[in-house]
Amino acid sequence: MSKLKRDLGLFETTLMGVGIILGAGIYVLIGAAAGIAGNSVWLSFVIASIVAIFTGLSYAEFSSRFSDDSGEYEYVKKTISERLGFIVGWMMVFTLLISAAAVALGFAGYFARLFPSFNVGVVIIAATTIIIFSLISYWGIKQAAWLNVLFTFLETFGLLFIIYLGLNKIGSVDYLDMPLGFEGVLSASALVFFAFIGFETIVKLSEETRTPKKTVPRAILLSILISTVIYILVAISAVSILSWDKLAVSTAPLADVAAVALGSYAFLALSIIALFSTGNTILIILIGASRQIYGICKNYPKLKNLSKVSSWRKTPHIAVLFTAIAAIAFSLIGKIGTVAEMTNFAVFATFILINTALISLRLKEKKPFTKGFRAPFSIKKVPITAVLGLFSSLFLMFQLPMFVILSGIGLLAGGTVIHKLVS
């Protein structure tokens, strides 16, 4: 049976993580978050990043122990139970598919705004975009990685440009202004956590990464740290240039920030960069979803066709095709509301299970794991960062609207039913 080709090093895997973390989230969500947290929106990013780094340390240790593309499925299966492993894998795949569709629709919206004469409808543009990036995902991970490098540099340039524009405005506002109090800052943290989603996608590239047990943990932690610094500086710069109440009602917040500072040409430039940013996010989400489907389905005879690898391109071609069709199907809805919050529920639930799994693994092991990365700060056998990651994820989950929580519980139930059908 053909195997995936190992083409990725630390540079490419780190840029993959940074690329998806810095993707569509910050270009869109900073406006909505500012409406809740006010000038303290930077603090919301700090809180969200702390939750991300706690769980990132758990992912880093797991990826140092296991190097399988199925990621969360493998970690939970080997430490808690196979059924819970399947459910957590199902949740992540479902979340990635919805996110790919939603971001593709966002890409289509930017595209339609920049090229109004190209009037074929956002759904057609979104579907075409998914097809194009799916072909890249199929063609080869090396080619996809270098396209991601290009797109990541462009989207990072856009954010660094915003930071540059805000340098001479630093100190012009009260950065602890909280229109809804600290509760508003916490609610905004639950929302902007969507902008940190992506570092966990790196583990789904393990079978295409050279020396994954060393490279993947480093890439996870580097991508979170780099993105956190950029996010905090962007948030401070944005509210320094454009008041938080105006950011809150903007449909293109960072582009409007640039327009206030430099005029309409800056708005056009940031809109184009946002187009590349959303495109990059779609590409990496489609890659992550197809590789996780491939990794999970290897373990179920009824799903084995989804784990086949192309003998020509050395990529999981059936999983890539399935991912493309599913994402296009979701995009046909035309608009997927509250996608960030829905995605966040699944991610918080997954992070709770991942941290619980690491605690369980540590308690069961007879000798400490010393052959790779190990999450720091333990009391006896219990990793403190995993405990903090578990409870902080649980806390932020309950900052989400109740209907999102109930919908997420329905998603968990759906995973249980699917598991029974394929077992």
The mean pLDDT is 86
Residue share in β-strands: under 5%
Look up the CATH topology: Amino acid/polyamine transporter I
Give the helix tally.
16
Instruction: Give the N-terminus to C-terminus distance in angstroms.
Output: 23 Å
CATH superfamily: Amino acid/polyamine transporter I
**Strand pairing plus helix content: what structural class?**
mainly alpha
CATH class bucket: Mainly Alpha
Overall, the morphology is globular
Radius of gyration computed on alpha carbons: 20 Å
- What number of structural domains do the residues give? 1
Order of adjacent strands in the largest pleated sheet: 1-2
Helix percentage: over 70%
Give an account of the 3D structure.
The chain has 423 residues and is an all-alpha fold. The protein has a single domain (10-416), classed as Amino acid/polyamine transporter I. It has 16 helices and 2 strands. It has helices spanning 10-21, 24-37, 41-65, 72-79, 82-114, 122-139, 141-166, 181-192, 212-241, 244-248, 253-262, 264-297, 317-331, 339-364, 384-397, 402-422; strands at residues 378-379, 382-383. Strands 1-2 form a two-stranded antiparallel sheet. Strand 1 (378-379) and strand 2 form a beta hairpin. Helix 1 (10-21) crosses helix 7 and helix 3 (41-65) runs antiparallel to helix 9. The longest helix has 34 residues, at 264-297. The radius of gyration is 20 Å and the shape is globular. The model has no long low-confidence stretch (mean pLDDT 86).
